Amino acid sequence: MDSSTTSTSAHALSLKVMKLSKPAIIPSWPLQVEPKDCCGEELMALREKDIAVLPKIENFPFGEILTVPQNCGSIYLGETFSSFVNVQNESNQTVRDVVLKTDLQTSSQRMPLSNPTGQAMVSKLVPGDNISEVINHEVKELGGQLLVCSVSYINTSGEKLMFRKYYKFQVLKPLDIRTKFFPTPDDEIFLEAAVTNTTPHSLHMQKVALVPSAIYNVTDLNFLENGDSIFAESDYINPEDTWQYVFKLTPKLDAHEKANVKGVSSVGKLDIGWLSNFGEKGRIQSSQLQRLIQPQGELVVTVQSMPHLITTNKQFSLLLRLRNTTDRKYNLHLTLSQLPNAGVIWIGDTKKVVGEIFPCSFIDVTLDLLPIKSGVWEIGELHIENLLTNKKFSYGTIGQILVGLD
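Structure (tokenized):
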């Protein structure tokens, strides 16, 4: 942390701030020698006397000695910022009504971290005595931030004096999160979240969950049937590594309610928790993930099922679902037309009476096709008429299939 201060040369009190950090392990650099090497015995003897080396496992790269960090280290979003603040009376005078107050200034707000009312912490502070406190704050904003420490007191002359110290620090991003949406014809949504570790050390991922909004149910697809994580036995993500998490979202709304939802829909928030080197906890929650909802038509046509393997000259069937998204009853008539130069043709009766579909309901229709050419071909055309209103719906294609050689 970079610090600046108002002039304190005339003040009886001094202020010191220290960021509280976990210690670090002193690394031990293995030196591979043999007794027959030149100076091998001498080097091995020195190696055994090295206090950073673990007894009997001299080639292990880490020892059992901890060292105090020489700088404040990096501060990451989602972690807890802890500092020790100390006020010392370095004069030969006794001062009264000592007030210590700390605030955090971010790019968007200023928040009190201690003593928000500005009350005196001690009624008097004798020479050589001190007051101190530990402040903790969960970091929730990126970028430059300013820790403001204010001290006020009354000297022996009855004069009220005050000074401040400022400590600047940068909050870095520990994880880079990218999301993609993959909608399905059944109105389900698959969300892929790519999480990259942007810190210089490994992180133990405790939780990566999707908290859905009120209109969705979520299924976590990142666990096997026996409950084990898909990321094998280790939950440690190395620096610059990217893990991909997948969630399935199912809407709670019925067809009529979904038809009335327009514009942008909030899907939910990603909630991520981790532990760093010495167990420091970190947690971030993304902003609301949003996706653009495409407006639905009155009659939605989707393919529900078809064979996985399709070859030429072998008839197959597909199951077509017609969904009425309105609040009115439909009575439908279906006409099938062949696409020009089609590799897949309709067979059987190309005109069908589908029947009645009640509001916010659906009906399934089975259709037969014959592939006559190999390759990727579109399926179509469909013309549907509502016999109650004479309104017509046309669908040029309803999907594509891959046809292999028989």
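The mean pLDDT is 82. The first strand starts at residue 2 and ends at 5.
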